Amino acid sequence: MSALLSPIKKRRKPRIGRYVRIISGVFACLVFLFPVFWMVLTSFKMPRDIFTTPPTFIFAPTLETYTSYFFHADVPRRMFNTVIVAFGAGLVSIFAGAMAGYALARIKLRGAATIGVLILLSRGVPPIALAVPMFLVARNLGLLDQHITLILAYCTFLIPYVMWLMRGFFKALPAELEEAALLDGCTRMGAFFRIIVPISMPGLISTLIFSVILAWEELLFALVLTNRNASTIPVAIAGIAGDTVNGANWGALTAVGTLTVIPVVIFALIVQKWLIQGLADGATKG
């Protein structure tokens, strides 16, 4: 009898483990997504509904906050600036960081490990320590409140991130690919752009996605280096948070915050195929 029950017990254990993983994953998603859900919900509330105790889920939705602050906070222009700066910084960082990662992964340089560690340590520098010198340099060059200034400032923290991610992708590729290209007459640069870049495209795209998201939400450099013409959407949120006399204007903050999140969500949905492919390649090759 026990021999007959043992296969049943063995089948039940994997099922129980699978259910536990599914329930744990759903619970983690709910925990992380609930603040976003609450932000979107609050953005449709009137002020009297926002401050009710206990909080209410049933109310008369309104778009008054969106219509009031869409132009009051200059959302269209700042959103356009954010798109330019985020994608510009992401593309420049991918171009420079990918070549740096390839050099560290393939080219035998004396002290390459030390160079890589020093570049990685630059990520540990507090951004406030760089913001003031950047402001002084940009002011002396007459480049304050310019898109290019903000793009270059974002590259200071994106390039080390891109370099280390792409270094892992390049090290996972067989070196015979470049050797065959070099034997066929390609230069090292030609082998990189003709052979390595097309093969590593999923990794490049997934890294670009993360870089754009990091640049999209950055506040400190945008707050210090811009004034009006190149200010981004996080600056608008900071301005609303600071423009309060009788407490935080949660309706405006949540409405502009929702408008900030929507483009990132749409962008992630559009490129999710390449993002998943890049993450899967990194997990299997690394």
From TrEMBL:
GO CC entries: plasma membrane
Keyword tRNA processing: no
UniProt xrefs under SUPFAM superfamilies: MetI-like
Keywords: Cell membrane, Membrane, Sugar transport, Transmembrane, Transmembrane helix, Transport
Location relative to the cell: Cell membrane
Transmembrane spans: 20-41, 83-105, 112-136, 148-170, 191-216, 250-271
Topology of this chain in the membrane: Multi-pass membrane protein
Domain ABC transmembrane type-1: 79-271
InterPro entries according to UniProt: BP-dep_ABC_trans_perm (IPR050901), MetI-like (IPR000515), MetI-like_sf (IPR035906)
Domain of life (superkingdom): Bacteria
Main location: membrane
One Pfam family matching this protein: BPD_transp_1
One GO BP annotation of this record: transmembrane transport
Similarity comment text for this entry: Belongs to the binding-protein-dependent transport system permease family.
Record-given protein name: Multiple sugar transport system permease protein
Organism: Microvirga flocculans
